[in-house]
């Protein structure tokens, strides 16, 4: 089979080499931050950049996102030589150096690519009577009673508020869901706060009720990315 290379806007300075990663590979996709073991992707050996096939195809150079409606967000690299600690404005977890984020440089707004898949509206078994909408405000989480960062899910009627991905492991969107990944119901135990790995957000996105919302919002275009997340979480065990 011929060697295949492609250009990608996320890393325009070099051609990326199509790569079949071994099942023991310890590399991580620089877009979605889950592992690439046993999957196909694109790699720059010079810069140690890896991108899943599905992530290279799905994520676009710019996005419009409801959590920052004022400006277009552009896929950008976290500078390698920067001493600032970058974190995602939605889930508050870190954005590791060299990884990609969607950024509004003008406002300093950053979001993990995976976090741009979060639905604007969810239903939670913790507050089943109403929809929860992601909106900016302040307060404490009704599930874990810790402080909320600006963006969180809340009920417009009851003042019920939830972390985007609650650190308590509370099942924001579907306790007892039959998830796409058999590991996805395991809660947040494996993820440490500030982890550079996307385990927690990936598990959250794989819950059945979120899957349905994401597929509806993207016209099922994100399905290959969700499949990659399910495979990556399975391989982790
Ligand atoms: Zn990926
Ligand atoms: Zn490179
Ligand atoms: Zn995030
Ligand atoms: Zn902005
Ligand atoms: Zn309510
Ligand atoms: Zn919480």
TrEMBL record:
Alphabetized, the UniProt keywords read: Metal-binding, Repeat, Zinc
Q: Which SUPFAM superfamilies match?
A: Cysteine-rich domain
Q: Which InterPro entries match?
A: C1-like_sf (IPR046349), DC1 (IPR004146), PKC_DAG/PE (IPR002219)
Annotated GO molecular function terms are: metal ion binding
Q: What residues does the Phorbol-ester/DAG-type domain cover?
A: 13-63
Tell me where the signal peptide lies.
none
Q: Name one Pfam family in it.
A: C1_2
Supply the Gene3D superfamilies for this chain: 3.30.60.20
Which PROSITE patterns does UniProt cross-reference here? ZF_DAG_PE_2
Q: What is this protein called?
A: Phorbol-ester/DAG-type domain-containing protein
- The organism encoding this protein is Oryza rufipogon (Brownbeard rice)
């Amino acid at each position: 089979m011929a060697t295949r290379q492609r250009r990608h806007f996320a890393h325009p300075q070099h051609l990326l080499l199509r790569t079949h990663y071994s099942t023991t590979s310890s590399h991580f996709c620089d877009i979605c931050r889950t592992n690439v073991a046993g999957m196909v992707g694109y790699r720059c050996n010079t810069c140690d950049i890896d991108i899943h096939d599905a992530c290279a195809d799905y994520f676009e150079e710019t996005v419009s996102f409801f959590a920052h409606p004022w400006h277009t967000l552009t896929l950008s690299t976290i500078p390698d030589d920067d001493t600032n600690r970058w974190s995602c404005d939605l889930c508050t977890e870190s954005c590791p150096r060299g990884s990609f984020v969607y950024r509004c440089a003008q406002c300093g707004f950053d979001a993990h690519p995976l976090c741009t898949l979060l639905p604007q509206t969810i239903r939670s078994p913790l507050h089943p009577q109403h929809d929860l909408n992601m909106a900016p405000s302040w307060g404490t989480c009704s599930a874990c009673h810790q402080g909320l960062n600006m963006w969180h899910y809340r009920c417009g009627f009851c003042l019920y508020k939830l972390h985007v991905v609650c650190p308590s492991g509370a099942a924001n969107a579907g306790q007892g869901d039959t998830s796409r990944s058999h590991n996805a119901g395991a809660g947040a135990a494996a993820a440490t706060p500030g982890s550079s790995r996307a385990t927690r957000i990936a598990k959250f996105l794989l819950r059945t009720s979120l899957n349905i919302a994401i597929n509806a919002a993207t016209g099922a275009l994100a399905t290959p990315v969700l499949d990659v997340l399910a495979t990556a979480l399975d391989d982790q065990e």
